[in-house]
């Protein structure tokens, strides 16, 4: 992601012929995601990258990372670029004062384990670490597992000691957390496909002359194309790397998982979110 931010920086500065300077602060140097969003609202920061955390202001932004909302990358692009995406973006701007400039796809979340899991029936008795997010708990309960919310920092040791059997995360985190040392299988559930936005404060954007507003938006669009290539290559390399480290990738009956999970997903969504979720399912 830092590479994409640097590409955005370079593109903006070149296209504006130096009239705009972009300073990039990686690795949460300016604080947590919520700190930075508050900073944008206060005018001390101009841009950041954010996703479903925006639901704290705009409930429709929860749709950016809902289990079994998105089938694949093509479906995600149709949603993010279409009317549903526009509706989510409009609420983000209206409720938070942040303008989404472009979106990036994130790596799909997959289930890891020490036995192959291909159907929901295989989950019976599996103690599964999940983030402390109610919809995750409800969905995995519905699927037959025993979901256990736990801090990410405790997951490796808990897997090592056998207190939990499985966890779910994108390939990037499976690799960086060395879960390949304590898990043998990546079960390709791809149960959450999500996207994030480059967001800029509306006041900050509106202060720029029209030609520079156009520069920022053009640079964001170009950065999306650049990031897409990086993302696809990274996902390919991560899969290869995890296999080299001994993990076996297992094809999963995703349709069976989706069908079993949908009642819990629908019951977890509020009156603003559910109609959008149903629109996504129609695409």
Structural summary, described in words:
Keywords: Signal, Transport. Belongs to the bacterial solute-binding protein 7 family. It is found in: Cell envelope. The protein is α/β, with parallel strands linked by helices and 283 residues long. The protein has two domains: 2-106 and 194-243, Bacterial extracellular solute-binding protein, family 7 (D-Maltodextrin-Binding Protein, domain 2); 109-192 and 247-282, Bacterial extracellular solute-binding protein, family 7 (D-Maltodextrin-Binding Protein, domain 2), CATH 3.40.190. Helix content is 48%, strand content 17%. The chain has eleven helices and nine strands. It has helices at 2-15, 33-42, 73-81, 83-96, 134-142, 155-161, 171-176, 202-207, 210-244, 254-268, 273-282; strands at residues 47-50, 98-105, 109-113, 127-130, 146-149, 166-170, 185-192, 195-201, 248-250. The strands form two sheets. Strands 5-4-6-3-7-9 form a six-stranded mixed β-sheet, with helices on both faces. Strands 1-8-2 form a three-stranded antiparallel β-sheet, with helices on both faces. Strand 4, helix 5 and strand 5 (146-149) form a beta-alpha-beta unit. Helix 5 (134-142) packs across helix 10. The longest helix has 35 residues, at 210-244. It is globular, with a radius of gyration of 20 Å.
């Amino acid at each position: 992601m830092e590479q994409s931010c640097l590409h955005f920086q370079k593109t903006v500065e070149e296209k504006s012929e130096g009239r705009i300077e972009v300073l990039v602060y990686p690795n949460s140097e300016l604080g947590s995601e919520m700190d930075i969003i508050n900073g944008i609202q206060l005018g001390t920061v101009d841009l950041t990258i954010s996703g479903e955390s925006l639901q704290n202001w705009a409930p429709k932004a929860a749709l950016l990372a809902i289990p079994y909302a998105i089938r694949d990358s093509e479906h995600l692009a149709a949603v993010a670029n279409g009317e549903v995406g526009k509706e989510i973006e409009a609420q983000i701007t209206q409720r938070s004062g942040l303008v989404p400039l472009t979106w990036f796809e994130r790596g799909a979340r997959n289930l890891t384990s020490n036995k192959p899991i291909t159907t929901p029936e295989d989950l019976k008795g599996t103690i599964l670490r999940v983030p402390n997010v109610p919809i995750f708990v409800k969905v995995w309960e519905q699927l037959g597992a025993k979901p256990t919310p736990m801090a990410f920092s405790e997951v490796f040791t808990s897997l090592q000691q056998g207190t939990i059997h499985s966890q779910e995360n994108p390939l990037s985190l499976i690799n960086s957390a060395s879960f390949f040392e304590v898990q043998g299988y990546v079960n390709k559930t791809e149960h959450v496909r999500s996207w994030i936005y480059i967001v800029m404060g509306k006041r900050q954007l509106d202060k720029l002359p029209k030609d520079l507003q156009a520069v920022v938006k053009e640079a964001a669009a170009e950065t999306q194309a650049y990031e897409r290539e990086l993302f696809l290559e990274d996902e390919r390399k991560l899969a290869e790397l995890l296999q080299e480290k001994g993990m076996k990738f297992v094809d999963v009956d995703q349709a069976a998982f989706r069908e079993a999970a949908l009642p819990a997903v629908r019951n977890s969504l509020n009156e603003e979110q559910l109609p959008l979720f149903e629109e996504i399912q129609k695409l």
